[in-house]
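Example with several molecule types.
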Amino acid sequence: MRGRPLTFLAWVQSAYGHNRMLIHGIGSLAFGLVLWEAVDRWFSDKYFFTGPDEVIKELLQLVRDGEIWIHLRYSALEGVYGYALAAAAGIACGAMLAFSRTLDEMFSPVLIGLYATPRPVVAPLFIVWLGLGVASKVAVIFIASFFPVAINTTAGIKNVESEFRMLGRAFNVSPWAMFVKIIVPGALPFLIAGLRLGYSRAIVTIMVAEMFGSEAGLGYMIVHATQVFDIPKMMVGISMLTLWGILGNEVLKLIERRATPYKQTLGI
Amino acid sequence: MGAIHNLYRNRHQLINGTLGLLFVMAFWHWADRTVANESFFVGPWKVLQTTISLFATGTIYPHLRTSGWEFLMGYGIAAMIGISLGMAFGMSKLVREFLDPWLGGLYATPTVALAPLIIIWFGIELTPKIIIVLLTAVIDIIINTYTGVINVGQEFRMLGMAFCVPKRQIWFKILLPGSLPYIVTGLRLATSRAIVGVVVAEYFGSSEGLGWLLFKALDTYNMPLMISCATLLAGTGIVLNQGILAVEKTMAPWRDTKLQE
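Resulting structure tokens for the full complex:
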């Protein structure tokens, strides 16, 4: 490269080479939006299909009305309570199972079975038990995110390599140091993977839990908008949930990279 | 005494597992006795009776057939699309870079939220249900296949290239077998998602199916029927999950399958 005059073409090439990923990503998003708008123009039936311009207009309208804040607040409340409780309880239970083999053998099959249970099945039950308010949704979101967190915590602690444990024992490390310096860093990647899984399930479950009957919330807004064929409003609700999903996932990925720089990550 | 001790030592996993299950059942039974209100909570015994009578009278079979068909079609198409897309993702950097933002977005989107829209587009026949099941299930398969392909290891691929193995053989002899365990994991995770898809699809307009029966029971406050439908759906999920898990363990015994979701 050195000595060669930097022509415009070369500059473009090198800029493209360095930001390839970003450029392709933005290009693909722009292409998608244009395609979306084109399909919308082609259908030109607002009860059937809606374009990005109408969705943005609808979002601005909802913000101006203030209606969106009610739903956002309601869903956020459910999500935060449900997820926080699930994370705390999941880590505690998972750790308990990891340190007792008998408990692990007794309850791990039950946990794994309940993990495979489809959540829309429990949502109506909780509405019968806890009513239409926030409590039933918090319970369903709790159920959805508790199991991945608990299962991954157990697996993470049990998978801390036994050489490291034996090394610690050989050097007569105190139980506290063993826990803080060996077990926690070893188990952390799995634990965070569990938290990420739990988070994405929690977002889906906000929708599922509110679908069957609610007072407010994004899921309620989506279902209600569908019933009156208000597709832009429905799309606003879906994009809000998607946005929460993306943001939360990025935050957890950031935490993952900071907390466990020793772990290699591949994939999404 | 020694014999019992030996038995426990040899079969502790099975014995403890059974004890745990019995404990949960006993707790369920106790909770039912305490609540003692059939329109609110139902014990395990009653659920078993209801389920048996559903099968004995034959009322369950049309629902099983409908839901099963939706599940099989949606899941089958999801498997085909998911595996091919996942392979394309893992193989081609260009495809990955172009579709990555969309995959990330789709991963974060609660696909069940799209169900009402799909009902508007395709009506309330079988097609929209298959599409909903397909949408909920496909993402796990794509992501796991993709992870599998990039984890097969650059070394093997480079070895193939060094020996001038034709591209088709790199695909079929290296990448596909190498990523097969991951693909199976994806297929396993997708079963439980697909069941969610079936239930949600039937909620938004149908006249038959296990999910429909569940919501009908909810509307009429028929708790025993409701919990027995829920148990059937959950049981299907558990059986499929454990079955595929067993396949996974024989295919890739070096992987701790519990860690994958």
